[in-house]
Amino acid sequence: MRHRVVVVGGGSAGITVAARLRRAGEDDVLLVDPTSWHHYQPLWTLVGAGVLSIARTRRRQADLVPKGVAWVRDAAVEIDADARVVTTEGGLRIGYEVLVLCPGVELAFDLVPGLTEAMAGPDGSTNYVASLAPKTAELVRRFRGGRALFCAPGSPIKCPGAPQKAAYLACDLWRRSGVLGKADVTYATGAGGIFGVPEFATVLEEVVARYGITTRFSTELVEIDPGGRRATFETTGPDGKSRTSLDYDLLWAAPPQRAPELVRDSPLAGTSPYGWVPVDRHSLRHVDFPEVFALGDVCDAPTSKTGAAIRAQAPVVVANVLATLRGEELAGRYDGYSACPFTTARGRMLLAEFDYSLAPHPTLPLIDTRRERYDMWLLKRYGLPAFYWNLMLRGLA
């Protein structure tokens, strides 16, 4: 089979792009995606905090694929960029005029020895897996003191604020239940600081101080001994690298992440060890293949991998895909907008919005989103999910 536009990946980016293409009048769009369920993953933070169930974060994929978009319910396993052909696990060969790549990321637990086993054990969890986010809530509820480790890699991951949010919401619960005074809470990250935008970093540093969290920056989780409940870290400092180990009673870890094997093993991957797709940062067109566009978590655009970034990238990609089909110059430009909603307590959130310049980029008039606010919590809990299901995925906003 052959189609004018083939979209690989049916997550936030794939469904949004497909819907916008249909609304723009493109009637030959094929979506390649094997999943049965579509999750609104930003709510997994609240699942891990015990606020709601995982079932409240998902809907049937069949109900979300836009009308008029063909759907191959199969996994893409190979891309021949020279022949412009995508091959699926079931053996279909699908030709394309324009390819939109948005298959998301692969969680690479295997890059940290012992991490997979720790997640399966009684003391470890993460909110990056649907089946484990409820476990986070249970571990936090049962915790009665000791050392709680929250870890994040320094390499790019989707929703890079999620490890902090897990720590803040856990500390808030422990504060309310009287356990926080018995807890030694450590946040260790391979990143060089709490956040890259100074205006928001200042507020987050106050949150860290309020909960008494010990921060370890430029400190990468490199190994876990799940039986001994011991985590080993490698810290990069002015004198080089050094290793240290910490015992834990509760371990929460964001796994390293990389492009899916489909992308890593194709000529569309760049030189990054994680296989990100190299794109022009403004047009989101592949740097070597002009008929290929990438957006969302899989591309190497130098901004945070969030749903808010996808929301800003999707109309740019659609405009440029249509221009490519018509043989016109690309007019769509992405400015690097992204946003991280930091839930700092149950009932409190600040919204960090920024662009490529790492300057605040507020989009809500008359609201100071740099403060912890109750109305921002309501936005996180109710407003953004409604916007996502009813507007964004339908190509309306």
Structure description:
The protein contains 9 helices and 21 strands. The chain has 397 residues and is α/β, with parallel strands linked by helices. The protein has 2 domains: 186 residues, FAD/NAD(P)-binding domain, CATH 3.50.50; 150 residues, 3-Layer(bba) Sandwich (FAD/NAD(P)-binding domain). Strands 1, 2, 5, 6, 7, 8 and 19 form a 7-stranded mixed β-sheet that branches. Strands 10-17-11-12-13 form a 5-stranded parallel β-sheet. Strand 14 and strand 15 form a beta hairpin. The longest helix has 20 residues. The protein is globular, with a radius of gyration of 21 Å. The chain starts with a strand and ends in a 5-residue tail after the last helix.
Oligomeric state of the chains in view:
single chain
* Ends apart, CA distance between termini: 31 Å
Helix content: 25-40%
The first-level CATH class name of the largest domain: Alpha Beta
Low-confidence stretches: none
Q: What general form does the structure show?
A: globular
Radius of gyration based on Cα positions: 21 Å
N to C succession of SSEs: EHEEHEEEEEEHEHEHEHEEEEEEHEHEEH
Number of domains: 2
Overall average pLDDT: 97
By secondary-structure content and strand pairing, the structural class works out as alpha/beta
Could you name the CATH homologous superfamily of the largest domain? FAD/NAD(P)-binding domain
Query: What is the second-level CATH architecture of the largest domain?
Result: 3-Layer(bba) Sandwich
Count of DSSP strands: 21
CATH topology-level name of the largest domain: FAD/NAD(P)-binding domain
Summarize the structure in short.
This protein has 397 residues and is an alpha/beta fold. It is built from nine helices and 21 strands.
